[in-house]
């Protein structure tokens, strides 16, 4: 079972109208709603049907999925260390300006005091974490000048990665390596800067970038040594916290990583509109 690239991120929503307004005003472009295919509903193990609102930002796609049979809302009081946590990181040329905009749109802060200035060695000038109106976590990243070469332009530029909180870094690393991803530049993050970014007292977290063949967007593993995160339980695809990464792969499948984060594997569509067998 091998994957080659992330093709989309899918967020489950109970209120697609409110959420699409938020992302449109943030700077995403939206297409019209479309039904979710019966084959995908079956793959997700759900009953009834659903609809999808595709959004685009730069070269990346985010889908807002609403299901006829709703699941659970986002867990109350969840933190960045909890194992339900999964965000996608949006690249911007000006984190302070972007944060001012998302705050006006009703974003819920995770970080303390807005954008956090990061050490030059990280290659990131500033970052801030927040939640959309339904609780999905996101991050704004402003790269340092030397690291911005792949992100030309102004405003919101695209999605760099999705970060997932994990219980056992070694087990999660083995899982993602088995899909064909490779590790690049792991770090141990701690201290006042990380505390402000996560909105947590005295966190210590292993950050493990896992890169597919096409390395943007990629996945980052967040292994919190402290505080200990709460387990996510078995999420279903219609739960609001059940964000799904969609991968170009050699088969169609729904799989879970060791902490229950969902991944949808899809074979490429042929010119005839069919998936190869």
Name some characteristics of this structure.
38% strand; 277 residues; globular; 2,3-Dihydroxybiphenyl 1,2-Dioxygenase, domain 1; eight-stranded mixed beta sheet; ten-stranded mixed beta sheet; 18 strands; alpha+beta; 2 domains
In short:
With 277 residues, the protein is α+β, with helices and mostly antiparallel strands. The protein is built from five helices and 18 strands.
Any overview of this molecule?
- The chain is α+β, with helices and mostly antiparallel strands.
- The chain has two domains: 3-74 and 236-266, 2,3-Dihydroxybiphenyl 1,2-Dioxygenase, domain 1 (Roll), CATH 3.10.180; 86-226, 2,3-Dihydroxybiphenyl 1,2-Dioxygenase, domain 1 (Roll).
- The chain is 16% helix and 38% strand.
- It has five helices and 18 strands.
- The protein has helices spanning 16-26, 38-44, 95-104, 169-178, 192-198, and strands at 3-12, 29-30, 34-35, 50-57, 60-67, 86-92, 108-109, 116-117, 124-131, 137-143, 156-166, 182-183, 187-190, 204-211, 218-226, 244-249, 253-256, 262-266.
- Strands 6, 7, 8, 9, 10, 11, 12, 13, 14 and 15 form a ten-stranded mixed β-sheet that branches. Strands 1, 2, 3, 4, 5, 16, 17 and 18 form an eight-stranded mixed β-sheet that branches.
- The longest helix is centred in the N-terminal third of the chain and has 11 residues, at 16-26.
């Amino acid at each position: 079972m091998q994957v080659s690239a992330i093709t989309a991120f899918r967020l489950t929503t109970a209120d697609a109208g409110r959420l699409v307004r938020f992302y449109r005003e943030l700077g995403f472009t939206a297409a019209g709603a479309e039904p979710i295919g019966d084959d995908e509903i079956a793959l997700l193990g759900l009953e009834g049907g659903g609809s999808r609102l595709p959004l685009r930002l730069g070269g990346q796609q985010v889908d807002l999925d609403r299901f006829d049979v709703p699941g659970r809302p986002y867990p109350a009081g969840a933190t960045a260390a909890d194992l339900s946590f999964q965000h996608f990181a949006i690249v911007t040329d000006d984190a302070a300006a972007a944060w001012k905009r998302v705050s006006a749109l009703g974003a819920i802060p995770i970080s303390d005091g807005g954008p956090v200035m990061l050490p030059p060695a990280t290659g990131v000038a500033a970052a801030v974490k927040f939640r959309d109106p339904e609780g999905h976590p996101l991050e704004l990243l402003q790269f340092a000048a030397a690291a911005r070469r792949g992100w030309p332009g102004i405003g919101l530029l695209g999605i760099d990665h999705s970060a997932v909180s994990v219980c056992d870094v070694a087990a999660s690393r083995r899982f993602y390596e088995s899909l064909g991803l490779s590790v690049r530049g792991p770090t141990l993050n701690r201290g006042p800067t990380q505390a402000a970014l996560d909105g947590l007292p005295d966190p210590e977290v292993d950050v493990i970038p896992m890169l597919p063949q096409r390395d943007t967007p990629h996945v980052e593993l967040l292994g919190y040594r402290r505080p200990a995160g709460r387990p996510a339980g078995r999420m279903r695809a219609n739960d609001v916290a059940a964000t799904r990464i969609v991968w170009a792969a050699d088969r169609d499948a729904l799989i879970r990583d060791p902490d229950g984060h969902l991944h949808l594997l899809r074979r490429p569509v042929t010119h005839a509109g069919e998936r190869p067998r």
